[in-house]
Design a protein that fits this description.
heterodimer; A: 308 residues; alpha+beta; Cytochrome Bc1 Complex, Chain D, domain 2; two-stranded antiparallel ribbon; 6 strands; 42% helix; 7% strand; B: 513 residues; Cytochrome Bc1 Complex, Chain C; four-stranded mixed sheet; 17 helices; 57% helix
């Protein structure tokens, strides 16, 4: 008697079963990851103190500036915009109610009025640098609050308005939330340290050319090509969205080195070899090599080969 | 005729004898080495006039560019993992410590005159080399040029493709930058994933654990000596068989299974192919000069296994392997104290093994299925062999989709789709692509077979309106250029006479096989 498996009908059905199970594996593993996690980080209570060498305390006992030769952090100050601090905070409050309260709530606690607490972050302990980053990078007010990740856009609010909102939010918390608005002194930075630290800390998501790339579940590491110095520093120190917050493991000097490398080389890559091809690496190179190189040569072959 | 003779062109010519100075030298050489016969065979080698026969030459000449630029690079590259401090001109690396291999690669880019151009030409020529091998192979496959008696040359060509890919990978690894270090790491893991022998082979190749200290030296010897030497030898064998078995040709007037109709090597094809050599060198040089490839200074050194960049892809010819690795589900088998990492072993060892073995076996498979054991010197039009064309299309679709799968992150980024969606799509699209490729190609072939004169040059219709309002379409008279003149075949002399050789004639020749 012939074994069952040797009969074509049975062999085929076994093969079909194997193929089907293959596809089941495909489906299974694609859905195996938890999708319910929220991309927002709401808990910033663990904000540490800076590695600063000098701290300036204001008249009311609050921290006004601190920092060192690498980065100075300054509290939002209305006098720079020819306003008293009270007026400045009041401006921030009214702007917040107008632009932000529909999601973050009128008291900035992340609970919109008459709605159950949702996925909106509580901003009451938010640092000035974080507020400034989100507003000045155009991510807030969000184009679509339900987006997994807010996109960089031309900012809707001005520098002054962003700082005013940050100043108002600072008044909601009894302690000063770290960090304040940074200003990075690039002059003394080391490019070599910056490039090494960039490779170690940033390239894993933003890619070594700083072009950014897609991450899992609709999130992405944005391109660093057109990010101002202040916002790079703010992002490293506050960790917006999915980005980890680099607090204890990088000193101010190291952050300054990274920012210097990003602003001088990542944003202005020296392309001594010709066209940079978008920093895409082998994908673009392969396309050019095949389409332009082999394609042109095949056309030339047509031209040469068909000549009588 | 005395010593006081005035040296004019005519007297010089007379002095040189009936064959001229060059002819005299060749005569002397022939007396000693007997080169006339081989030279005659070489000069009279007939090349059929079809542009697609030039595709293989892209590979040949880009290989020559590779050899030339590679020799230049080898003068400056140091294959050493010894740590050195960089003192060059690229500021972000100044004072950093990394391997001498990376340092010498950066230095030959920035410190050596023309070094960067040579490095970029080398890399572009490599991309073009492998690409042209693939399209040359596709031409050979779809026209059935691999059939008896040319199966051996098909095998040699495929081996060349594999060696080209391997050598490309080895070369990509040599600069010891972040990207190539990642590549070596992946290769190490792939070797490790082979059951039973994997760990031993990896340990033997790397001289211990990854990365070790000697892998760059070993890759260097393989990349610039061993593999190129084998490639060179196989290219020689490829060309020898080509001359020995003569070219295939497309069917046409005067073309039979027993002749070759086309232009002779000298002077026509010699002129064409030399010109083509310059075109290929020129395009490579233009790309090398104006399009930046593999900016290793941006990538930085691979000095720490914890340093990794996202979005690292291999060069395009390794893309199908990377794509398979990316989309393969994470299966692994743990039992009896052993782990079988199927998620690495299947896509990166088994899969390419299957792909290349199908290619190797195809001539034999086709002989078996068609029961066709005849000699074939006339080519098929792809549409006339729909099954073969469909199989080739299926294979190309499959490999192409695997290749596309190696850029899942780039696709997700540029089309703003979730990376997971792209991955899921690829997991279905890749296994389905050969089916689609097969069916589409098969029916296109069938449709083309049904169309009379498909693919022939179109003759415009002239529509005239008669006095009664009737429209009449008549084919336009052919222009002079459109008429293809068949040249009368010239008989090739079968011996070299001692008399004045006949003047070299250009035009179509016919030789018996």
């Amino acid at each position: 008697m012939q074994p069952l498996l040797l009969k074509p009908r049975y062999a085929l059905s076994v093969l079909a079963l194997m193929l089907t199970s293959t596809f089941t594996f495909f489906i299974g593993s694609a859905h195996a990851v938890n999708t319910t996690q929220t991309p927002y980080q709401t808990d910033r209570k663990d904000a540490g103190t800076s590695n600063s060498s000098s701290v300036t305390i204001g008249a009311n006992g609050q921290v006004v500036t601190y920092g060192n030769g690498a980065i100075t952090y300054t509290a939002p100050d209305g006098t720079k915009f020819k306003m008293t601090q009270t007026q400045f905070v009041e401006l921030g409050n009214s702007l917040f109610q107008q632009e932000c309260a529909s999601c973050h709530g009128v008291t900035a606690n992340g609970v919109p009025q008459n709605k159950t607490p949702g996925n909106f972050p509580n901003l009451r302990h938010e640092a000035a640098a974080a507020v400034d980053f989100w507003i000045e990078s155009g991510r807030m007010p969000a184009a679509n609050p339900r987006d997994v990740q807010a996109q960089r856009r031309p900012p809707k609010l001005s520098h002054k308005e962003a700082l005013a909102i940050a100043a108002w939010i600072a008044t909601l918390s009894k302690t000063t939330a770290w960090p304040l608005i940074p200003s990075t002194h690039l002059k003394g930075g080391s490019l070599a340290d910056g490039s090494a630290l960039f490779a170690l800390n940033c390239a894993a998501c933003h890619t070594i050319t700083g072009d950014g790339d897609a991450l899992a579940f609709d999130t992405y590491a944005p391109s660093l090509r057109n990010v101002p110095v202040v916002q790079i520093t703010e992002a490293i120190r506050t960790g917006p969205g999915n980005m980890p917050r680099f607090a204890g493991n990088l000193s101010d000097a190291q952050v300054r080195d990274i920012v210097k490398y990003v602003s001088l080389y990542i944003q202005h890559p020296r392309n001594p070899g010709g066209l940079g091809l978008g920093g895409l690496g082998p994908v673009a190179e392969g396309f050019i090599g095949l389409a332009l190189g082999v394609g042109l040569l095949a056309l030339a072959g047509f031209w040469v080969g068909e000549r009588q | 005729m005395s010593d006081t003779m005035v040296k004019t062109k005519r007297t010089k010519k007379q002095q040189a004898g009936p064959y001229g100075k060059l002819g005299h030298t060749i005569n002397e050489l022939d007396d000693r080495l007997g080169i006339a016969k081989a030279g005659r065979t070489f000069f009279d080698k007939v090349f059929p006039d079809h542009w697609s026969f030039m595709l293989g030459e892209i590979a040949l000449y880009s290989f020559i560019v590779l050899l030339a630029t590679g020799v230049f690079l080898s003068l400056y590259y140091v294959p050493s993992s010894t740590l050195v401090t960089y003192h060059g001109t690229y500021l972000p690396l100044l004072g950093r410590k990394f391997s001498e291999a990376y340092e010498s690669s950066v230095n030959l880019s920035f410190g050596v005159r023309g070094g960067l151009l040579m490095r970029q030409m080398h890399h572009w020529a490599c991309d073009i080399f492998v690409g042209s091998i693939v399209i040359h192979m596709a031409r050979v496959f779809f026209t059935g040029a691999f059939r008896k008696p040319r199966e051996l040359n098909w095998t040699i060509g495929l081996t060349l493709l594999i060696l080209a890919i391997i050598n490309g990978f080895l070369g990509y690894s040599l600069p010891d930058d972040l990207v190539s270090g990642t590549g070596i790491r992946i290769a190490y893991s792939i070797i490790l994933s082979i059951p039973l022998v994997g760990s031993y082979v990896a340990s033997w190749l790397f001289g211990g654990n990854f990365p070790g200290h000697i892998i760059l030296e070993r890759f260097y010897i393989l990349h610039m000596f061993v593999v190129p030497l084998i490639i060179l030898g196989l290219v020689g064998a490829h060309m020898f068989l080509l001359v020995r078995q003569k070219h295939t040709q497309f069917p046409g007037p005067g073309r039979t299974e027993n002749n070759v109709v086309g232009a002779p090597m000298f002077p026509i094809f010699m002129a064409k192919t030399t010109g083509y050599l310059f075109v290929i060198t020129g395009v490579t040089a233009l790309l090398g000069a104006f399009a930046q490839i593999n900016p290793i200074w941006q990538f930085g050194p691979y000095d720490n296994t914890s340093v990794i960049s996202y979005a690292v892809q291999p060069d395009w010819y390794m893309g199908f392997l990377d794509g398979a690795l990316r989309i393969w589900p994470s299966w692994s088998f743990h039992s009896f104290g052993y782990t079988l990492p199927l998620e690495v072993f299947i896509p990166s060892v088994i899969l390419p093994g299957i792909i290349f073995n199908i290619c190797f076996a195809w001539p034999a498979l086709e002989r078996k299925f068609t029961k066709d054991n005849e000699m074939h010197n006339l080519l098929d039009r792809p549409r006339d062999r729909p099954v073969r064309t469909a199989v080739g299309s299926a294979m190309l679709s499959f490999v192409f989709m695997l290749f596309i799968a190696s850029s899942t992150d780039v696709l997700a980024k540029y089309f703003s789709i979730s990376l997971n969606t792209v991955l899921l799509f690829m997991r279905y699209a890749v296994p389905l692509s050969p089916v689609v490729g097969y069916v589409v190609a098969y029916y296109i072939c069938k449709e083309l077979q049904g169309v009379e004169h498909a693919g022939k040059r179109k003759v415009p219709n002239v529509v005239t309106r008669s006095a009664t309002g009737e429209y009449i379409a008549t084919p336009a008279p052919r222009r002079v250029d459109d008429v293809h003149h068949e040249l009368a075949p010239l008989q090739v002399p079968t011996y070299v006479s001692s008399e004045e050789p006949p003047p070299s004639t250009s035009g179509v020749r016919q030789v018996d096989r």
